[in-house]
Design goal:
Layout: H1 2-35, E1 43-44, E2 50-55, E3 62-66, E4 71-74, E5 76-77, E6 82-87, E7 93-101, E8 104-106, E9 114-115, E10 122-127, E11 144-152, E12 157-165, E13 179-183, H2 192-195, H3 199-208, E14 216-220, H4 232-247, E15 257-262, H5 264-275, E16 282-286, H6 294-297, H7 305-308, E17 311-317, H8 323-335, E18 341-345, H9 351-361
Parallel strand pairs: 13-14, 13-15, 15-16, 16-17, 17-18
Antiparallel strand pairs: 1-2, 2-6, 3-4, 3-7, 5-6, 7-8, 7-10, 9-10, 11-12, 12-14
Length: about 375
């Protein structure tokens, strides 16, 4: 009996220790949970002001820089180590932003929406208005995005491109579609036009409103690594286009291919497109222009532009740092008497403009003489 009593006492003591440990652990977990309460950031208010928050109790300074804020803004810290600031109101749009913690740039850990860049990844906040913007996901039929990978022996690299197919692509098994090859800027990759540009949503909305011709959008990776004479022009013409035309029901001929791009992609468009008007009959140049010896390099092709191009569309913001390059392009086109459509707007080197340029360009594509 004594042995049994001892066992019972020991068991009771163990149970007491476990219970105490659980209680203490519960208190600790509760305190931890309180310290780690979910941070809501960003918070978009009905008046279109935006509250940014970051839990950083050890930080000395925290700033936030949003596209609509006009540079870095110092945030305020409460007694629990939560930093916050309210900015705006902002015009309805999609904006990127970053935190700077003691000078170090970082994304918002409370926000899963990010813009992945080759330079610096940033967070995204969408400020909505009373009416949907052209890029907003709406209650309309949605197309699909497909990723393709291919190996380039010349540079020993695996590269990729993304293809958008309209919502009716699978159902219309015999239909053949024109293709827009859409190029990103130097800081982005092949996901730029979907993650930030929302090209797929823009076209979904246009097609639902019957404002555009059903088309494919191909978004390749515009940067080329390595040497051996391999260029993006060679990649686009020799690898991407053949892969697209082998795997999708594409309509043939230059009249069914368009090339457009922003910034670096705009320079690539005005370079590659003018030299290959037997491949592309529609060109869209956003926030770009010409540089260096462009006129000399392209002098054999420029006189053919009016007879071969169905549309040359160029657009830029008045405050864009590439405005002089754009002005040089305009001057050359005027000297050569080349027909083009121009769009000069308020603003700078911004995705806010490029989304709207695309929304304006796509209804013109693959129609007679670039008319809606």
């Amino acid at each position: 009996m004594a042995e049994s009593k001892t066992d019972t006492q020991e068991n009771a003591m163990n149970i007491t220790k476990i219970t105490f440990a659980i209680m203490i652990g519960g208190i600790s977990l509760s305190a931890f949970a309180q310290r780690q309460a979910p941070v809501v950031s960003p918070q978009v208010n009905p008046d279109r002001t935006v509250v940014f928050r970051l839990a950083a109790p050890q930080a000395t300074t925290v700033e936030v820089s949003a596209e609509f804020s006009g540079g870095k803004k110092a945030m305020n810290k409460d007694d629990k180590g939560l930093w916050s600031i309210t900015l705006g109101p902002a015009e309805p749009d999609l904006y990127s932003y970053s935190f700077f913690v003691d000078g170090v740039q970082m994304i918002d850990p409370a926000n899963a929406a990010v813009k992945v860049s080759l330079r610096a990844t940033e967070s995204l906040v969408e400020v909505r208005g009373e009416t949907p913007q052209c890029y907003e996901t709406q209650n309309v039929p949605h197309g699909l995005l497909h990723r393709h990978r291919y190996f380039v022996k010349d540079i020993n690299r695996t590269r990729s491109f993304i293809v958008y197919t309209p919502a009716d692509y699978a159902a219309n098994a015999t239909a053949r579609y024109p293709v827009l090859y859409l190029l990103h800027g130097s800081g982005d990759n092949e996901e730029g036009w979907t993650a930030v540009g929302r090209a797929h949503d823009i076209l979904d909305n246009l097609l639902a409103a019957k404002k555009a011709v059903p088309m494919l959008i191909v978004m390749p990776f515009g940067q080329v690594e390595g040497d051996n004479g391999y260029t993006f022009e060679k990649d686009l013409l020799g690898a991407v286009i053949p892969a697209v035309e082998a795997n999708y029901r594409t309509a043939p001929g230059p009249q069914n291919r368009a090339l457009a791009g922003l910034s670096m992609g705009g320079f690539q468009t005005i370079d590659i497109g003018i030299k290959n008007m037997d491949t592309f009959a529609w060109l869209g140049v956003f926030s770009a222009g010409i540089r260096g010896d462009y006129a000399k390099v392209h002098e054999a092709f420029l006189p053919q532009a009016n007879s071969k191009l169905k549309l040359l569309w160029v657009g830029i913001g008045k405050d864009d740092f590439l405005f002089q390059n754009f002005t040089d392009l305009q001057k050359l086109l005027d000297e050569q008497k080349i027909r083009y459509t121009v769009k000069i707007t308020e603003g700078g080197h911004w995705w806010r403009l490029w989304r709207r340029y695309l929304d304006e360009l796509m209804p013109l594509l693959f129609r007679e003489n670039g008319q809606k």
